[in-house]
Design brief:
Number of helices: 5
Structural class: alpha+beta
Shape: globular
Helix content: 40-55%
Strand content: 15-25%
Largest sheet: 6 strands, mixed
Length: 233
């Protein structure tokens, strides 16, 4: 099967399932305050398993274990076609429309490396959008008139970066860019390398200041002034 056709079919089926969940749950009883994103993700995970119980292609779906905050996926499923089973990891992202220009962490690069080493490749980000209501929140479309935006990590916008916490980051409104699996591996390691080089330069500058002694000397001087004041009490 052509790789592009294979990937398009996966995304289409995942989009249909997610849109069905939102249509059935347009106004979930979730506060749009502090932990809205986590609660929406929990809702989507559980409903995804229910929606795919008798699905033509998506089989053996599971939601993330309760309390497993470090789990590499929010939900997982197998895309099954012509005797082939492809493991798919899903990462649900709930975006408040008033914060659509944010740059959230989207996970460590280690997990896609682990997935590839398992013999699979597809981690899918599924973005849903909401706004606050008097009674909680409601799901809405984004500025591109999409109820759901989803893409493979391999097709992430080239504007993504790795931060010092070893988390990938990308703007919530950034457009995905179609690329091959090999091209993704290359750009991922380019970004990881660039990030480490930035960290090295930052550390070099910090070490230079420490070695020059100005910061420590200034602190010691200021501390002595404070101690002298206390001694005069």
């Amino acid at each position: 099967m052509n790789i592009n056709d294979f990937e398009r079919l996966i995304l289409k089926e995942l989009q249909d399932v997610t849109e069905n969940i939102l249509v059935k749950n347009p106004n979930p009883t979730i506060s749009a305050k502090a932990r809205a994103g986590a609660e929406i993700s929990d809702l989507l995970e559980k409903q995804f398993v229910i929606e795919t119980q008798n699905h033509k292609y998506l089989k053996k779906s599971q939601s993330s274990p309760e309390g497993a905050t470090k789990n590499p996926w929010d939900a997982m499923t197998y895309f099954c076609i012509n005797g082939h089973e492809e493991l798919i990891w899903l990462d649900f992202k709930a975006v408040k429309v008033s914060s659509a220009d944010s740059n959230p962490d989207i996970g460590t690069p280690d997990k896609i490396i682990d997935l590839i080493n398992l013999g699979y490749f597809y981690l899918v980000y599924i973005f849903v959008y909401y706004e606050e209501t008097d009674n909680g929140l409601k799901f809405v479309k984004n500025t591109d008139n999409e109820l759901v935006k989803l893409y493979f990590l391999k097709d992430i916008s080239s504007t993504f970066r790795r931060n010092p916490k070893n988390q990938l980051q990308v703007n919530s409104s950034a457009k995905p860019e179609k690329r091959s699996r090999a091209e993704f591996i290359n750009i991922l390691f380019d970004k990881i390398s660039e990030s480490h080089k930035r960290q090295i330069e930052i550390s070099k500058k910090a070490l230079k200041k420490i070695e020059e002694g100005r910061i420590k000397d200034d602190l010691l001087t200021e501390n002595q002034k404070q101690e002298d004041k206390i001694k005069k009490i």
